[in-house]
């Protein structure tokens, strides 16, 4: 389906479709052009739904075993091409190659898991009120699903939605982020190679997401929208879904608190923050955004943490030993810098030099701030960059109250060696995901998702499959 290696047409109905205009994809580490994808209009957006709608009638009737077999084949093709796709992912998104490979494996684990789970879409029988009645509960695929994904995990955000959708018997129209669309087309190329039938998976890209996605939001044939991205766009889509009462799943922004209790293993806590904070240069929705350290261990924690941060190498993700790649664009760099300036102006102490190197890439060195207070921007707005703000607390209750004092509720972290504290914190934090002594909690079999304004619904595990299934009951007189 590809023309040149990384110049793609739209992928609709197993065909490559050209548009008049292309979007050039830039490497954030070098500013070089990596490839190009089509700039679709409303016309192509509708074509994609036509294809998915027509494919739904046969795909939804396949057996779970047939769908499982195709998902397994797709998994195998991706596994074979992991290194090739990971290199493209690093070039278009910036993350270090080892992280890109890690993302590919994580992304692919959803195909494997849902290939198996497709076979466990069970119904129920419910005792009726009279002897001549039977009540049967069945699960059926919701229909055509619109999948809209962000740039920070160009592979995983797609498979986390598409694997359960296909396992359930749904067909999909996918709109990946315009900054990192190449990985999405490569995943579709793998699906093509695996023999996923025409119209089951369709990919379109555009420079005008609002305008193009409106076609999907207004089309009654699209029964569900599953979105990962910023909270404002998620709210907009939720409003637009109301007119045709589509099902909605949202994975939105976070502002994760990372609490380090007085009895924490400091070395483990330092490793946990490094892993959570600086993975993907801090551009993850579950990344530690606010670090709360018990005042009694602040000095010890800070000196170990700064020593660890000094060991992180910033550079092109394709280079050896790089642990922090570039940020995605100029806006991202400016946002982090604004948060640093605001914090320093309000009294925060800057421990690491925050030099920005943007002459040949959107690079930013990791920054550590202490003496941080909750009125600073970095404690109120998602940072999405390599800035680690550290604040102290006195009591567990104070830590939880401050951690919960936000409209967000995606991920939270607690480091403690006390079982009692582990339970107490995890039960009182208003977050969909709590990592206890664990800075990397995401896996295919667990229900990833947020409370409050961080989202609706869950991705992963058997909960993730329910999002793509309608429940029908049949009351039968016999
Ligand atoms: P974004 O909301 O700008 O874009 C996400 C997607 O929505 C892109 O494909 C974009 O083209 C599309 N989009 C933009 N405007 C649209 C509109 N008006 N109508 C329809 N679609 C539109 O977000 P982003 O900057 O790409 O991603 C960063 C955000 O994503 C962060 O807030 C981050 O926390 C969040 N995120 C959340 C999760 C999660 O699982 N909760 C995972 C990754 C990222």
TrEMBL record:
Stored Pfam families: Aldedh
The protein, known as: Aldehyde dehydrogenase
Species per Swiss-Prot/TrEMBL record: Cytobacillus depressus
Active site (UniProt): 251, 285
Record keyword Iron present: no
Entry keyword annotation includes Oxidoreductase: yes
Top-level taxon of the source organism: Bacteria
One GO molecular-function entry: succinate-semialdehyde dehydrogenase (NAD+) activity
Entry keywords, A to Z: Oxidoreductase
Domain Aldehyde dehydrogenase, chain residue ranges per copy: 21-474
Gene3D superfamilies given in the database record: Aldehyde Dehydrogenase, Chain A, domain 1 (3.40.605.10), Aldehyde Dehydrogenase, Chain A, domain 2 (3.40.309.10)
Similarity-based family: Belongs to the aldehyde dehydrogenase family.
GO biological process terms held by the UniProt record: aldehyde metabolic process; gamma-aminobutyric acid catabolic process
């Amino acid at each position: 389906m590809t023309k040149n290696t990384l110049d793609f047409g739209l992928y609709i109905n197993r065909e490559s479709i050209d548009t008049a205009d292309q979007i050039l994809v830039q490497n954030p580490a070098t500013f070089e052009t990596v490839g190009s994808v089509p700039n679709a209009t409303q016309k192509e957006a509708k074509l994609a739904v036509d294809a998915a709608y027509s494919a739904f009638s046969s795909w939804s009737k396949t057996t779970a075993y047939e769908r499982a077999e195709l998902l397994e084949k797709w998994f195998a093709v991706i596994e074979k091409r992991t290194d090739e796709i990971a290199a493209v992912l690093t070039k278009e998104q910036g993350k270090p190659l080892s992280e890109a490979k890690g993302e590919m494996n994580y992304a692919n684990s959803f195909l494997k898991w849902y290939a198996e789970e497709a076979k466990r879409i069970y119904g129920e029988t419910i005792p009726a009120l009279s002897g001549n009645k039977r009540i049967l509960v069945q699960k059926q695929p919701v229909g055509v699903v619109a999948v809209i994904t962000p740039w920070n995990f160009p592979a995983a955000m797609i498979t986390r939605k598409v694997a359960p959708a296909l396992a359930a018997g749904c067909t999909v129209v996918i709109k990946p982020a315009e900054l990192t669309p190449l990985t999405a087309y490569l995943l579709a190329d793998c699906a093509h190679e695996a023999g996923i039938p025409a119209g089951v998976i369709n990919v379109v890209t555009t420079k005008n997401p609002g305008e193009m996605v409106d076609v999907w939001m207004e089309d009654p044939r699209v029964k569900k929208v599953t979105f990962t991205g910023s909270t404002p766009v998620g709210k907009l889509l939720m409003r637009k879904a109301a007119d045709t009462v589509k099902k909605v799943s949202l994975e939105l922004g976070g502002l994760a608190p990372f609490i380090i209790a007085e009895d924490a293993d400091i070395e483990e806590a330092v490793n946990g923050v490094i892993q959570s904070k600086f993975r993907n240069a801090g551009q993850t929705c579950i990344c530690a955004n606010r670090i709360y350290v018990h005042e009694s261990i602040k000095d010890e924690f800070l000196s170990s943490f700064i020593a660890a941060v000094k060991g992180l190498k910033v550079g092109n993700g394709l280079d050896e030993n790089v642990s922090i790649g570039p940020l995605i664009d100029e806006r991202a760099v400016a946002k982090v810098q604004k948060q640093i300036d605001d914090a320093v102006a309000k009294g925060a102490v800057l421990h690491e030099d925050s030099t920005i190197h943007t002459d040949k890439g959107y690079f930013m060195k990791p920054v550590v701030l202490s003496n941080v207070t909750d009125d600073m921007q970095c404690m109120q707005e998602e940072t999405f960059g390599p800035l680690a703000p550290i604040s102290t607390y006195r009591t567990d209750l104070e830590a939880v109250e401050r951690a919960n004092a936000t409209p967000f509720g995606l991920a939270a972290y607690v480091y403690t060696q006390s079982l009692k504290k582990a339970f107490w914190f995890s039960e009182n934090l208003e977050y969909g995901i709590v990592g206890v002594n664990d800075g990397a909690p995401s896996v295919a079999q667990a229900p990833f998702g947020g409370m409050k304004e961080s989202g609706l619904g869950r991705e992963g595990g058997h909960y993730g499959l329910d999002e793509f299934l309608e429940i029908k009951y049949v009351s039968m007189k016999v």
